[in-house]
Amino acid sequence: MVASLLTCPSCGKTDLDIRQYDSMMVIKADTALFTLQCPKCLKRVSSMQPIPPELIDEVLCAALKLDAGMGCDI
User: Fold this and answer.
1) Tens digits of pLDDT across the chain (74 residues)
2) How far apart are CA 26 and CA 71, in angstroms?
3) What's the predicted TM-score (pTM) here?
């Protein structure tokens, strides 16, 4: 699977990988708001994206630890 890549709106760098996020806010079971720092211009980039399959276990584990309930619906 190809990772979700973002483009920095400040400098145009096109290969920002959301799997290298600084923070992730899960909006629903398959979607999150990802925030990361552009390595070229150091600006913060945020984008709502589908959660990559590689991160699903991490999200479910965090939800269970926080008793967020996501593991109950899947």
Assistant:
1) 456 899 999 999 999 999 999 999 999 889 999 999 999 999 999 999 999 999 988 888 887 888 776 555 54
2) 13
3) 0.80
Query: Helix (H, G, I), strand (E, B), or coil: what is residue 52?
Result: coil
Which among 30, 26, 4, 35 is positioned nearest to 17, based on CA atoms?
4
**DSSP letter assigned to residue 3:** P
| The pair of three-digit structure tokens given for residue 54, joined into one six-digit string | 């590689």
Find the helix or strand (DSSP H, E) in which 71 lies.
helix 70-73
CA 15 to CA 58: how far, in whole Å?
23
